[in-house]
């Protein structure tokens, strides 16, 4: 025991690693060294001393940090009235374009991700956009996509045989190898029951804004790029 130096040590302090023999000595060492007895989760551990227990401890520590950050993000007091006004303005601008834009409560992933903005000077939306290629299990996120850009131009860097990025092209090979007439762009119809999922077909030659008019969007548009010959259970509205 490093406190009384008489009895055989039975305990070791997680904080300062001092050995103690009894509860009395534990209390004495805490008082003498102003030690709280709680292990320092951020203390340096050399590679030679690093064990599976340290790894597990670090993993749990990161989980705690993530949980705390998520709880803080959900707390209503951290969001100013200005943010609420900005969202209300965004919804009103969308309504003026015949788009029903819905925003999720604080803490939802889509709410956190969304970077959609409205430029008052240009009188234009810059959309946060997600592209899903289900036949290749691939997803791509685009930020600040102008609403006057055509859907075909948005997809060119992904499925165009000539203009697409070589790495992306290789991953989406099944799309680039198929004729453009076989490519279909769909967007899920919101506010329907789970057993009645339907999709709207978008016109690739028209602008993103024209395609979004008359539709309900939750946070931001998600476009599903499919091949007509391969899509199975994706039923287009009205068919």
From TrEMBL:
Similarity comment: Belongs to the BCD1 family.
GO cellular component: nucleus; pre-snoRNP complex
Gene Ontology MF terms in the entry: zinc ion binding
Chain's gene name: Znhit6
Subunit structure of this chain's protein: Interacts with FBL, SNU13, NOP58, NUFIP1, RUVBL1, RUVBL2 and TAF9. Interacts (via HIT-type zinc finger) with the RUVBL1/RUVBL2 complex in the presence of ADP.
Domain HIT-type: 1-35
Alphabetical list of PANTHER family matching this protein: BOX C_D SNORNA PROTEIN 1 (PTHR13483:SF3), BOX C_D SNORNA PROTEIN 1-RELATED (PTHR13483)
Keyword Ubl conjugation among UniProt keywords: yes
GO biological process: box C/D snoRNP assembly; maturation of LSU-rRNA from tricistronic rRNA transcript (SSU-rRNA, 5.8S rRNA, LSU-rRNA); snoRNA localization
Role of this protein: Required for box C/D snoRNAs accumulation involved in snoRNA processing, snoRNA transport to the nucleolus and ribosome biogenesis.
Assigned keywords, A-Z: Isopeptide bond, Metal-binding, Phosphoprotein, Ribosome biogenesis, Ubl conjugation, Zinc, Zinc-finger
This protein's name: Box C/D snoRNA protein 1
SUPFAM superfamilies the record matches: HIT/MYND zinc finger-like
InterPro entries: BCD1, BCD1_alpha/beta, Znf_HIT
One of the Pfam families matching this protein, by short name: zf-HIT
């Amino acid at each position: 025991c490093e406190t009384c130096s008489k009895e055989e040590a039975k305990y070791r302090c997680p904080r300062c690693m001092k050995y103690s023999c009894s509860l009395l000595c534990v209390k004495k060492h805490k008082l003498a060294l102003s030690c709280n007895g709680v292990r320092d989760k951020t203390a340096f551990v050399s590679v030679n001393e690093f064990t599976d227990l340290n790894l597990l401890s670090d993993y749990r520590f990161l989980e705690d940090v993530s949980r705390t950050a998520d709880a803080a993000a959900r707390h209503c007091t951290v969001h100013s009235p200005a943010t609420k006004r900005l969202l209300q303005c965004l919804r009103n601008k969308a309504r003026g374009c015949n788009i029903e834009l819905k925003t999720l409560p604080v803490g939802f992933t889509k709410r956190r991700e969304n970077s959609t903005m409205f430029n008052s000077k240009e009188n234009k939306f810059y959309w946060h956009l997600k592209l899903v290629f289900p036949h290749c299990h691939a997803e791509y996120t685009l930020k600040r996509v102008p609403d006057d850009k055509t859907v075909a131009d948005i997809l060119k860097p992904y499925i165009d045989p000539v203009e697409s990025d070589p790495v992306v092209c290789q991953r989406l090979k099944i799309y680039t190898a198929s004729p453009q007439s076989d490519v279909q762009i769909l967007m899920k119809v919101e506010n329907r029951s789970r057993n009645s999922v339907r999709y709207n077909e978008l016109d690739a030659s028209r602008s993103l804004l024209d395609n979004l008019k008359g539709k309900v969007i939750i946070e931001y548009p998600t476009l599903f790029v499919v091949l007509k010959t391969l899509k199975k259970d994706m039923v287009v509205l009205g068919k």
